[in-house]
Write a structure and sequence with these properties.
alpha+beta; seven-stranded antiparallel sheet; 2 helices; 7 strands; 42% strand
């Protein structure tokens, strides 16, 4: 069984995620940008580019906070409850692929 979610910012569609596999505990998804993607793309690219040691977690926290401040949520197409990013789930988008954990 595969799942589909809409990444939303308010009523604006940021993109669509379609599950194609699982790498426990992560759902592997194809990502298709939506009309509101450009407004949030930079923050997700910064999250994707974050590499190397971060002993105190401050670099990671700064990048994640910038995404949390966007007020994004994942809305499942199966009428399950929506999930707030980095509160109820973690989403990493890298180009046309995404990794989702909840």
């Amino acid at each position: 069984m595969t799942a589909t979610w809409w990444l939303m910012q308010g009523e604006a569609a940021v993109g669509e995620l379609r599950q194609y596999g699982v790498d426990q505990p992560v759902f592997l998804c194809h990502f298709t940008p939506g009309p509101a993607w450009e407004a949030v793309r930079e923050q997700f690219e910064a999250w994707s580019a974050l590499r190397g040691p971060d002993p105190d977690g401050s670099r990671t926290a700064k990048v994640i906070r910038s995404i949390m401040d966007l007020g994004l949520r994942l809305v499942p197409t199966d009428d399950s409850p929506s999930m707030a990013l980095f509160t109820e789930c973690i989403l990493r988008i890298d180009g046309h692929t995404a990794r989702l954990r909840y």
